[in-house]
Amino acid sequence: MRHVSILALHEATMTSIDSSQQLLNRANDFLKYQKKAGFYTVEIVGAEKNIKLNQGLYTISVNKTIDEVKKTDVIIIPLLCGNFSKAIQENKKYCDWVISQYYNGAEIVCLCVGSFFLASTGLLKNKKCAIHWAAKDEFKAMFSDVNLVDDKIITDESGIYTCAGGYSYLNLLLYLIEKHLGKEMSILASKMFEIDIERKSQNPFIIFIGQKKHTDKEVLCAQEFIENSPANIFTVEDICSKFSVGRRTFERRFKKCTGNSIVEYIQRVKVEFAKTQLESDRKSINEIIYEVGYNNIDAFRKVFKRYTDLSPIDYRKRFIRR
């Protein structure tokens, strides 16, 4: 048996709390159908008996307060919404309890941007953490000592599990069930809740937004130039010449400010432009590839798949707007 504490954090979303208890309790039902004992004792736990969630939109009554739970086996940290810095401050009273339970053997299952709270406890220091692509830059600015992973939706390290993407936390819950009860039970849960168990990456869903929260004016101008010219063909030398800067120094500055090399930035802008074209069925795939400045179709397909995990044709099949 595993005792599960789903934390009712201030600024948490009701859906992530409810989905967690629904999935784990349903796993117990599956075991009972097989004439086996239930595995999870699931409780919603809070700092007070009644907690306001989702910026005050909901109020939840918890099963127990953290003072009443002396020992738990699994802690589930739900999604947070709104201002992350504010949410961290409002939930400081949970920190000591979470840290104590972890060092007493509890696993921590962190859903999406609930990782902002978890990182504030210090338990993610030098550990891997997946994060939603839209929150990556803000997270890195606040917690530079965390090993951020943005190419997978699940991380598993030292009894701490994290996930990226809004509802990909459902995949993390399936992963937890598989760890505890085996693949067969995880597959059964995925079928009953109709969750795509094979999701491994958030790359197909990422919308590339260049990092511009820096003060290097020449880098900002270069970013805008690249973004305003997705169909043009130019080299790194062309950009450095346009802004009258030395290549080696400027490439170093560009990478430091944006997290991408100049070549990577150009590629990502072209891929993002191609994605918007692929979502319409007005042009053929080859027309779109030529339009973004590639004469070598195979070369562009490789670049496209590197950033999306999909070929152009598979991307169109998944996201086309009819």
TrEMBL record:
Which GO terms of the molecular function aspect are on file?
A: DNA-binding transcription factor activity; sequence-specific DNA binding
Q: What UniProt keywords are attached to this protein's entry?
A: DNA-binding, Transcription, Transcription regulation
- Residue ranges of every copy of the HTH araC/xylS-type domain listed in the record: 220-318
What InterPro entries would the database entry show?
Class_I_gatase-like, DJ-1/PfpI, Homeodomain-like_sf, HTH_AraC, HTH_AraC-typ_CS, INH-QAR
Quote the SUPFAM superfamilies the UniProt record gives: Class I glutamine amidotransferase-like, Homeodomain-like
Question: DNA-binding as a keyword?
Answer: yes
The record ties this protein, via PANTHER family, to:
ARAC-FAMILY TRANSCRIPTIONAL REGULATOR (PTHR43130), TRANSCRIPTIONAL REGULATORY PROTEIN (PTHR43130:SF11)
Listed name of the protein: Helix-turn-helix domain-containing protein
Originating species:
Chitinophaga oryziterrae
Organism classification: Bacteria, Pseudomonadati, Bacteroidota, Chitinophagia, Chitinophagales
